[in-house]
Amino acid sequence: MSGRWVRRAAQRTEEAAYLAANGEPRPAPRAERRADEQSRKQGAKQGRRLQAGPTGLEDPAVRGEHAAPPKPYTARELRRTYEALLGMYGEQQWWPTASTEGPAQRLEICLGAILVQNTSWRGAASALENLGAAGALNVEAIAALPEDVLGDIVRPSGHYRVKARKLQSFANVVIEEHGGDIDALLAGTTEEVRARLLRIWGIGPESADAITLYAARLPTFVVDAYAYRLFERLGHPPGERRYDVYREYFMRMIGTREEDVWALNEWHALIVRHGQGTCRKTQPRCGDCALLDCCAFGKTQ
Ligand code: SF4
User: Fold this and answer.
1) What confidence tier does 278 reach under pLDDT thresholds 50, 70, 90?
2) Which ligand 1 atom is nearest residue 292's CA?
3) Which residues does 109 contact at the CB level (< 8 Å), separation at least 6?
4) Taking Cα atoms as reference points, which of 197, 209, 190, 214 lies closest to residue 265?
5) Residue with CA at minimum distance from ligand 1 atom 3
6) Is the CB of 233 under 6 A from ligand 1?
7) What is the pTM of this model?
8) How far is the centre of ligand 1, averaged over its atoms, from the C-alpha of 286 (Å)?
9) Are 288 and 98 in contact (CB under 8 A)?
10) CA of 89 to the centre of ligand 1 (A)
11) Domains within the chain, CATH numbers bracketed
């Protein structure tokens, strides 16, 4: 048995006796207390050093606090984007209609703008064809048809019950407030026509602008999911992802005069074409895109 073991056994016995007599553990011997004190001070010092040490996030730029917000394109940069899209797809000049120039065509554009909500143009076009085949490409017939029958006719456009109600809400306003005259609904300035359309149940900003631009041929910009996606991917959104922010920016950049209608028409059509065929939501075809060199997202693909 070693002397060290004997000393340790004796120490344990003394500690047990002290605990039994005093109800608390015996204080550590002075040497141990000194060692404990030193270790505590050392720990505190290390703690202070750790708190003050570099975390890798000292630079506000690294934390993203002072990161410069993305800059919207200047007029010249926007023009280059437009030319690249035009080079890829050629002139579009919408809106595709079966009717030729005149009130019938304008009504078809209005109905198409409602039917295309939340669906592809193919579905809306098929619903328009059905309306034509049923002899219901006029506001009187749309208003008079039972809602479920109208729903069946426009079924290819999806959400067909709601779309039938929206078509009837539109037809009723044209009949009751404008004597059934689509041109009376579309008469006035951009803001007058737009405000009139926005008061109709079932017509939101995108449909109102599509009708104002393509049916009334008044200057406005149609903002849609393709526009948000494209400019966010390019790394130059006009600002917050809000309808009015995008609309105001594009109108300021492209123009608000009668002669700007052509460019406003073409811009929206090209963005849609690009969003559907190339800059798709999933698996965008960046390798085929003329904007790849200046696209923040495309360069990461
Ligand atoms: S490079 Fe890709 S992500 Fe960028 S605009 Fe073209 S298709 Fe869209």
Assistant:
1) very high
2) 1
3) 95, 97, 210, 211, 214, 215
4) 214
5) 298
6) yes
7) 0.77
8) 5
9) no
10) 14
11) 3-45 (no CATH), 73-301 (1.10.340.30)
